[in-house]
Design brief:
- With about 190 residues, the protein is α+β, with helices and mostly antiparallel strands.
- The chain has two domains: about 1-30; about 35-185, 3-layer Sandwich (Rieske Iron-sulfur Protein), CATH 2.102.10.
- It is built from three helices and eleven strands, in the order ααβββαββββββββ.
- The longest helix is centred in the first third of the chain and has 22 residues, at about 1-25.
- It is globular and about 85 Å long.
- The termini are far apart.
Length: about 190
């Protein structure tokens, strides 16, 4: 009788372990939502590195001192300069004029908040940008004409209702960041 019980328990375990294992997310599913570590040391000043996180393009921009300096002057032209009216949470460290932990580095999701197109970087200013003579530099969405400054804040009277999303992120060192995780946990 004891032998039958032991054999039955062993058989139940042999069936349960693979069954329970099959209910866990696959490695591909885990990696799709997992935080992404990025080396930012090779991004030139004024350059952008694009990485994928959760199937979305994330831009890491190393802004020039001029880009950072010009942000405050744009507040009156923006729909939401302080990122107050958004459908997604904005990390506390992005609730500042440069929307970033360090003023010279912007981390933002590269998807327009209007209909999900991908804006392009237009960091050239003025006529050289191809946008307008008074263009301060930033991002332009070619689908419907939304424009964003170099902090990802949307200009007023444009189709996009919100600023570009700033995902949770943190610095591991001066040259490495993690996107999708910060000191508060994972996104």
């Amino acid at each position: 009788m004891i032998a039958c019980g032991a054999v039955g328990a062993g058989a139940a375990a042999a069936v349960a372990v693979p069954f329970l294992g099959s209910m866990a997310p696959s490695e591909k599913a885990r990696s799709a939502g997992a935080p992404v570590e990025v080396d930012i040391s090779d991004i030139p000043v004024g350059g952008v590195k694009i990485v994928e996180w959760r199937g979305k393009p994330v831009w890491v921009v190393r802004r020039t001192p001029e880009m950072v300096k010009g942000l405050e002057a744009l507040n009156s032209q923006l729909a939401d300069p302080n990122s107050d009216r958004t459908d997604y949470p904005v990390p506390a460290y992005a609730k500042n004029i440069h929307r970033s932990i360090k003023p010279e580095v912007l981390v933002t999701v590269g998807i327009c908040t209007h209909l999900g197109c991908s804006p392009v970087s237009k960091f050239e200013t003025g006529e050289a940008s191809g946008i307008s003579a008074d263009w301060p530099g930033g991002f332009f969405c070619p689908c419907h004409g939304s424009t964003f400054d170099s902090a990802g804040r949307v200009f007023a009277n444009k189709p996009a209702p919100d600023n570009l999303e700033v995902p949770r992120h943190m610095y591991l060192s001066d040259s490495r960041i993690v996107i999708g995780q910060d000191e508060q946990g994972e996104a």
